[in-house]
Known about the structure:
The complex is a heterodimer. Chain A is mainly alpha-helical. Chain A has helices at 5-33, 48-66, 72-79, 86-95, 99-113, 131-144, 148-159, 164-177, 180-191, 197-212, 218-223, 229-236. Chain A has a domain at 1-129. The longest helix of chain A is centred in the first third of the chain and has 29 residues, at 5-33. Chain B is mostly helical. Helix content of chain B is 66%, strand content 0%. Chain B has twelve helices and no strands. Chain B has helices at residues 8-11, 15-20, 24-32, 39-50, 56-70, 80-97, 108-116, 120-131, 135-146, 151-158, 162-177, 179-183. Chains A and B meet through helix 1 and helix 2 of A and helix 3, helix 5 and helix 6 of B.
Amino acid sequence: MSFEPAQLEEELLRVHRHAWVRLLLQSSLEASARSQSCVWYPPSCGSLEDVRLQHEIRAALRLAHADGLCPPPVLQACLHEQPPALSLIEAAEALLPGVGTLFCRGMARWSSLDAGWGARPMGLVGPGASALQWLESSALLSAREGAVEAALRRFGLALQTGDAGLRIQALAYALDAGSPEHIARWSRLLDGSQHEQQLQARLLGVLRDRRRSRRTPLEWLDGECPLPARELALALE
Amino acid sequence: MESGTDRTSIVGHRLPEWFRVRSPREILHRLANGDPLLLRARAGAFLERHAYLLEGDALFLRTIAVIAHAGPRCRTAADADAWIEARMHEAVQELLQEPVRYPSEGGVYEHIGRPLGLDPCAMRRVAARFNRLAEADRQAFFGLVIRGQRMEALAAQLGESAPELGRRARSVLDLFLDPAAALTRPECVREL
């Protein structure tokens, strides 16, 4: 019996999912052992695939609980759809690209229903903060601590939620960080949003600011900037 | 370029080294093409050894995917067989957690279900319950009913008394003969 390439791909995806669930379970167990409110069950996000994934995770949790592997507080928190720990979102994204977006979309949705929960686990922003603000604050904290890659990953997750303000924050951060590869990475993310007038206006502001303080790397302006040439010329006058 | 049927191309290497230079997708396609690690035969032997009622092709397919996923992180050069066996255990556990799927025609479920009066779909549902039983219970039923081994010989092989073995096999047989068990979904198992 031979297998079609699509069948092989599907099988590999299933294995990735199982590995992801195991990793998250393990992380939840470790977090629980440290008595932290670190749980990861993704809120409902709408699509059939999302729902199926959640069912798989829920089933895996119940099995683990039945086997005595999942401490009750973690299971209870998971079944009550509390927010995921950011490190787990990142771990999930690394294993299965796209899952981080799923989490962020769910977080954004749930933050509108229960503003503030996103902030609580991180202790970074005050009550009422949205999930996006939570991610952003976390990214900025990482940046301040010198964890450049962690900050960029967290910005990247936030960017996938489509928030223009966060794109600007990310660009500003990339310009501050200053390394060409970071700037190129964020520029590619910004490239799909040229139509957003608000984004352009804010970006121009960032560029003018950086130009004044001589912090805008010229190679980025020459090759990677997503703004139209005329707008760019105006910004640099 | 390696030949898809050239088993020596993998066997001649240490597994970790062979995996290290390949992506999971490459490993997957390589293992599916020509079965260089003899995983299809290993899957059949594994199912019989551990008394699981699963389709061998399903386990083979899942095993090559699990190995492809784990391969790049494989560090165990000393005992490749043990490493592969561990991956096969993972593959079985994953399959047991997944939804019940319609079995393929002429598969193991039709073969086993027919004498018990169960159609392949009902047999698949019962098998999902069976596979979650303790291995000792599965071994008792597998040996006495499916392999047709003699009670005394099997009891000696498994290190159990004949009455205990009979009790185990009987309790499992009830699962197969209970129509309600064939109609209800096993706990934690969904249908696609």
